[in-house]
TrEMBL record:
Name assigned to this protein: Taste receptor type 2
Organism for this UniProt entry: Monodelphis domestica (Gray short-tailed opossum)
InterPro entries given in the database record: TAS2R (IPR007960)
GO annotation (BP), single: detection of chemical stimulus involved in sensory perception of bitter taste
Subcellular location: Membrane
Gene expressing this chain: TAS2R39
Lineage: Eukaryota, Metazoa, Chordata, Craniata, Vertebrata
C-alpha cells in the first residue's frame, strides 16, 4: 500500500496557529493600512494634478509592492498552517517563493531609490557628476523604477531554477505489512541561495548605505559652514538633512533585522511551524509595516493627511453614536 506525497511536518498545534495569525496577521493589516494610505494620498495627487511628483511616484510604487508583499505573506501563512500538504507541492511552493522574492527585491529597490532621491535633492556637493545627477534625477526616475522591476524579476526567477529541489521519499510504516508512505521533502541548495540572495539584496543595500553616508558627510560640511558664517544652529537645510538621516537610519535598522530573518526563512533550516520559523515570519511582517509608519510620521504631507483622516474618522464615529 502506497500513499500520495504528503508534507514531512506534522500539523501545527492550535497555539502555533493562533500566535502566528494574531501577531503576523496584525502586522500585515497595519502594514496594508499604512501603505494603502500612502498610496491613496499620492494617487489622489496624481489624479488631481494629472502628474506624479518624483517622490510621490516612488512612494506610490513602494507602497503598492508592500501591499502585495504583505497580502502574499497572509496567504502563505494561511496555506502553510491550514493546508500544509497543498503548500508543500513543488509548483505551489516555488511559486510562493518566487513571488515573495520578487516583491521583496522590488520593495528594497524602491526604498533605495527613495533614499537616493532624498539625498540628491537635499545634499550640497559641487561635484560635476553630482550636479548633473541632481538636474536629471526627475527624468531618470521612471526608467530606474522600471529597470528595478526587471532586475527583481530576473533575480527571483533564479530561485525556482537553482535553489529549491522537491522530491518524494518512501517512509516504511510497517515492515511486516510492507506499507509505506510518501514523504515530501524540500532540498535547499545553500550555496546558490546565498549567492542569488546576496546579489539581489546587497547591490541596492550598498547603494542605500552610500546615499546615507554621503548625506551625513553633506550634513557635516553644512554644519561647519554654518559655524564659520556664525549662522544659527537650526535652519531649513539642517532640518531637511536631519529628517532624511533619521528616516534612512530607521529604515536601515529595520532592514538588517529583516535581512537576517528572511535569509533564515528562505534557507529552510527550521521546521515549517517551529518557534524560530514563526519568529522569522513575524519579523518579516514587521519590516514593511514599521517602515510605512515611519514614512507617514516623517513626511509632513502624509503626517498632516493622516491627522485629518483621524479627525474625520472620530467625527464620523461620534455622529453614528449620537
Amino acid at each position: 500500500m502506497c500513499e500520495i506525497c504528503s508534507s514531512p511536518e506534522e500539523k501545527p498545534s492550535m497555539f502555533v496557529i493562533i500566535i502566528s495569525f494574531t501577531i503576523s496577521g496584525t502586522e500585515c493589516i497595519i502594514g496594508i493600512t499604512g501603505n494603502g494610505f500612502i498610496m491613496a494620498i499620492n494617487g489622489t495627487e496624481w489624479v488631481q494634478n494629472r502628474k506624479f511628483s518624483t517622490s510621490g511616484r516612488i512612494l506610490f510604487f513602494l507602497s503598492l509592492s508592500r501591499i502585495a508583499l504583505q497580502t502574499r505573506m497572509m496567504i502563505e501563512n494561511f496555506a502553510s498552517l491550514i493546508f500544509l500538504s497543498f503548500y508543500k507541492e513543488d509548483t505551489i511552493y516555488e511559486l510562493f517563493r518566487v513571488i515573495f522574492m520578487f516583491l521583496t527585491f522590488c520593495s528594497l529597490w524602491f526604498a533605495t531609490w527613495l533614499s537616493i532621491f532624498y539625498f540628491v535633492k537635499i545634499a550640497n556637493f559641487n561635484n560635476p557628476l553630482f550636479l548633473k545627477l541632481k538636474w536629471r534625477i526627475t527624468r531618470l526616475m521612471p526608467w530606474l523604477l522600471l529597470s528595478s522591476v526587471i532586475i527583481s524579476f530576473c533575480n527571483s526567477v533564479l530561485f525556482s531554477l537553482h535553489v529549491y529541489n522537491a522530491s518524494c521519499s518512501d517512509l516504511i510504516l510497517n515492515p511486516f505489512s510492507n506499507s509505506t508512505k510518501k514523504k515530501y521533502n524540500i532540498n535547499t541548495n545553500m550555496i546558490n541561495l546565498v549567492v542569488i540572495y546576496n546579489v539581489g539584496m546587497f547591490i541596492p543595500l550598498i547603494m542605500f548605505i552610500l546615499a546615507a553616508l554621503s548625506l551625513i558627510i553633506s550634513l557635516k560640511r553644512h554644519t561647519l559652514q554654518m559655524e564659520i558664517n556664525t549662522i544659527g544652529s537650526r535652519n531649513p537645510s539642517m532640518e531637511a538633512h536631519m529628517g532624511a538621516i533619521k528616516a534612512i537610519s530607521s529604515f536601515l535598522i529595520l532592514y538588517i533585522f529583516n535581512f537576517v530573518a528572511l535569509l533564515l526563512f528562505m534557507s529552510n533550516i527550521f521546521d515549517e511551524n517551529s518557534f524560530w520559523n514563526i519568529s522569522c515570519k513575524i519579523i518579516m511582517a514587521a519590516y514593511p509595516s514599521g517602515h510605512s509608519i515611519l514614512l507617514i510620521l516623517g513626511n509632513p504631507k502624509l503626517r498632516n493627511a493622516w491627522g485629518t483622516f483621524q479627525h474625520q474618522m472620530k467625527f464620523c464615529l461620534k455622529g453614528r453614536t449620537s
